[in-house]
């Protein structure tokens, strides 16, 4: 199986944090995507609603083409960060699962600062329901970019689901995830994060 990578990037004003959170997150995203050797990539910036996804195939794409896709996503993220709005993670999750490809291993990354999260209970309910019905080849990573992304109800919901992983990047430099992908993911992944 080849891989399908879906990156959901929060783009709220809280990402304009004094420590350049938005800029550092975009740089991490750029480095991660550039490190991929194969697969399909979908970038979904979100705020009050998910934005139009940017989807491309890494296989055979030139560096200039990939730079163009990432640049387009970066501009959308930056523009959204300038607007008032809360992070509607529930709407973004519903959009992200539309891009799952059942013929591939799917990796969904949620890059969240969550200071401005709306519909938290709906997100928790989505996660609890997801755990009972999700396909075997889908893995979700909730990446907490700052301490504001920590929510006990959300953490509890994630911890009950064996294929949703919590990555605590609060106050830390976000590590490369590509080094763990794609096939080593199932066994002992939690220990490697």
Count of runs of 4 or more consecutive helical residues? 6
Residue fraction in strands: 15-25%
C-alpha Rg, in Å? 15 Å
N→C terminal distance: 23 Å
Spans with pLDDT under 50 lasting ≥5 residues?
179-193
Helical proportion, percent range: 25-40%
SSE pattern: EHEEHHEHEHEH
The tally of beta strands, per DSSP, is 6
Determine the mean pLDDT. 80
Strand order of the largest sheet: 3-2-1-4-5-6
Largest beta-sheet details = 6 strands, mixed
Structural class: alpha/beta
Assembly state: single chain
* Outline: globular
Protein model, in words:
The protein has helices at residues 21-35, 63-81, 89-96, 120-133, 152-159, 189-192, and strands at 3-10, 40-46, 54-57, 105-112, 138-144, 164-168. By secondary structure, it is an alpha/beta fold. It has a 6-stranded mixed sheet, sandwiched between helices. Strand 2 and strand 3 form a beta hairpin. The protein is globular and about 40 Å long. The relative contact order is 0.17. The model is unreliable at 179-193 (pLDDT under 50).
